[in-house]
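Help wanted!
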Amino acid sequence: MIYIVLTVLVLIVIFLLLHLAIIHRNLKEIILYVKSLLNENYSSRIIRKAKGNFAELIRILNELTEKMEKQKVNSGEKGDVLAILFEVMKEGVILTKKSGEIIQANKSIKEIFGENIVKAGKMIQELMVNKDFIDFVNKNPEEGKIDVIELHQPETGKYLLISRLFLEQYQLFIYLFSDITDTKNLARVKSEFITNLSHELRTPLTAIKGYLEVLDEGGLDGKDKKKFIKILRGNIERLVNIVSDLLILSDVERTERKLDVEKFDLNGVVDEIVMLFRKSAEEKGLQLVYTPAKIPLYSGDRFLIQQLLVNLVSNGIRFTEKGKVEIEIKYEGKKFLITVSDTGIGIPAEEIPKIFERFYTVDKARSRAQGGTGLGLSIVKHIVQLHQGEIKVESRLREGSRFTVILPDMSASSF
Ligand code: ADP
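Answered by r_m:
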């Protein structure tokens, strides 16, 4: 009996020891695993085979890790996306404490103010020496309200739109800086254009009104009547010229404008221009010189190239009193060169950069008297740009001017 009891007891002890060893191994592995979870390592799983409560515990732990891993990926992705967005945003962003101390700023803001000015630890008030800006920054925030201000930086010529939001929960400000200089300039150019246009139209319209009133009053003899009608016709012609030039200009100014490309001989176009202007050149006693050149066919918009030449040659004739206007065409290094030179009044050096602006004329009275609109060279500039070319001007006062249009040979590619 004693032997039997002892054997059973020994067996029970052995069984218990084995069981304890298994429990110990399982616990050790679980502790190691939980430690790895604390280090945010969610990629491993417990693969130990277990029974009963341990099996359940292992299953729950694996499931929990699975969830935590998914959460980490999601929040990580969101964080990454936000960080990328912060850096690539065109607008400048600054995060400050309530006191105005800068915590973080993105790349764009450094482009607006400079690397050294926007730094963590500096105060936002230091960014601009501008009373309106300081007042804006120091204004007490209202919860959920976005404050906005528009400022001009005279040192850089930039216009900035600044928005500010206070995050009550975090006691932080988010500032958003948008560079609106281009939009502002565009608005200015537009309003200047309208002012110039109104001015240009008002002069002939006022003249027409005045002369019509005199005609209406009657009492003019035949000779005066003829004179007045001639003046009226001249002013109406001027209005028609302005409107037609404006139509061409607004057409060629469209950035998305497609060219009506065809292959043609530039000599043919120049021939037509020479025919068109022969009479007016002769009337002024000017020579209109052109020798056809041996050049390949050009691929471009024939109508627009014709317009370009009309403007350059008519300028040449209008601004030359004696001598000649010469047209030359060359093909050099895969480029077509069209040169229109004259022996006319020339252009003062300081005026040359401005002559391509809309309505700009060196001598308004002279240009008007000769039927000029001040739009011709703007049209030329846009036609050249549409053909991906460039235009050069050389001029000497009282000696003459030389306009060279350089057009790349685009026959291989399409516009
Ligand atoms: P406009 O209708 O007045 O000719 P453009 O835009 O064609 O307008 O030219 C602008 C100005 O540039 C002219 O008013 C003139 O002052 C100057 N200009 C252009 N071409 C010549 C030239 N060949 N010789 C002298 N001045 C010129």
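OP: Thanks! One thing I noticed: Residues 2-38 form the longest helix (37 residues).
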